[in-house]
Design brief:
The chain has 379 residues and is of the alpha+beta class. It has eight helices and 27 strands. Helices cover 17% and strands 37% of the residues. The chain has a 19-stranded mixed beta sheet that branches. A five-stranded mixed beta sheet has the order 3-2-1-25-23. About 20% of the residues have low confidence.
């Protein structure tokens, strides 16, 4: 589609002359910023067409690519377009009314979590009132107005007592942030857990399943360790993202700031040995797959897109995307057909409705149906 065709399409939209199919295609531009209205002038909307076209061109041979490129026009909208072999196709399809009706009640995830105290008591952080939640040893646990929990040392009234652990668990469709007793900030993604001591001793050590983003408070004499199923990550003070879902094929640690060392469980300094870990520099990732750890360059924006409120896809297959959607929208997923040759690029806001996300995916002639809360993929 050349510039003249795009301009004519926009003109027809503003005159109300688009077909239902064309109208649906144009309106998917605006999924990233739904509060923006389609009232911009043709000149404004088409001012960056040359740049748009260059960003959309992507040649492929064996795989089907669906490009979902962000920030395409001056109005800061998003265009979702199917690209096969460098051609831009307008044969867009919207989900059936039945599918839209079935998905209308399925909303994006949000701040939801359970805090399990050392005595086994469970506290719904979603429902807890602001202020003090509990006293644990010499720490007061508080829920703040910005949707976090913090630990505040209370040396006047609290007693250290024996070592105690708290656990934060986010459900499917949930996320939560916490400031640990040492000042380290952690954000948990959906279907994740974080287990940590109420008071840190000489060794600061936590356990994670799922996905978490860490901003570690600096304590030169107290290394901070994150233990997952396949990795032990150790550092002094830095920022990194850990993806350790059991259903994912690999465990990944992506470093944003500082330096970390990554070990296999039972080795390295965390296991009584030293100088056996792989050291990461900012922009690198440690990937553990089939019990082997390797280091490679990482796309840090992709790694923390979830923390910033986006699904971000970079040559990502449909099965990987469906795993993310299933956790965030609390869905089961079933595959009927071959999905291995469908690759996506781009980003979608995580506050987009499920029907909106499926509308984008169905533009690539990928079809879905719903049975209860089971999303069925059909190529």
């Amino acid at each position: 589609m050349d510039n003249k065709e795009i301009i004519k399409l926009l003109e027809r939209y503003h005159l109300g002359q688009c077909t239902e199919q064309e109208q649906a295609w144009i309106e998917t531009w605006y999924l990233n910023q739904p509060e923006v209205t389609l009232t911009n002038s043709i000149e404004e909307l088409t001012s960056d067409l040359e740049e748009i076209e260059q960003r959309l061109i992507k040649h492929t041979t064996q795989v089907k690519y669906v490009s979902i490129w962000p920030k395409l026009v001056a109005a800061a909208s998003v265009l979702f377009v199917l690209s096969i072999g460098g051609y831009f196709l307008l044969q867009k399809q919207t989900p059936s009314k039945t599918l839209q009706d079935q998905t209308v009640s399925i909303v994006p995830g949000g701040n939801k979590a359970i805090l399990t105290l050392s005595n086994g008591q469970q506290v719904s952080l979603t429902d807890a009132t602001l202020g003090a939640i509990s006293e644990q040893g010499n720490q007061t646990i508080k829920k703040t107005s910005d949707g976090m929990i913090t630990y505040q040392s209370n040396t006047l009234t609290g007693q250290p007592g024996k070592e105690a652990y708290n656990t934060i668990t986010t459900p499917r469709g949930g996320q939560w942030s916490v400031v640990l007793p040492d000042g380290t900030k952690v954000m948990l993604d959906a279907a994740s857990t974080l287990k940590y001591p109420v008071s840190f001793g000489l060794a600061r050590e936590v356990q994670v399943t799922g996905q978490a983003y860490f901003e570690v408070a600096h304590h030169a004499d107290k290394p901070f360790r994150v233990i997952t199923r396949d990795q032990v990550i150790e550092d002094i003070g830095t920022a990194f993202n850990v993806n350790a879902y059991n259903e994912e094929p690999a465990t990944k640690t992506v470093l944003l700031e500082g330096i970390v060392e990554v070990f296999s469980p039972g080795t390295g300094s965390a296991g009584g040995k030293k100088n056996t870990g792989l050291r990461l520099s900012p922009g690198q990732q440690a990937v553990t797959q089939n019990h082997k750890i390797s280091v490679s360059r990482a796309n840090t924006e992709d790694a923390i897109a979830w923390k910033n409120g986006y699904f971000r896809f970079n040559d990502e297959n449909i099965e990987s995307i469906m795993r993310k959607l299933s956790r965030w929208y609390d869905l089961e997923v079933e595959y009927r057909g071959n999905s291995s040759q469908i690759i996506f690029n781009g980003e979608i806001p995580r506050n987009t409705s499920l029907s909106g996300v499926l509308k984008v995916l169905e533009a690539a002639n990928i079809h879905f149906s719903m049975e209860g809360k089971k999303l069925i993929f059909k190529e």
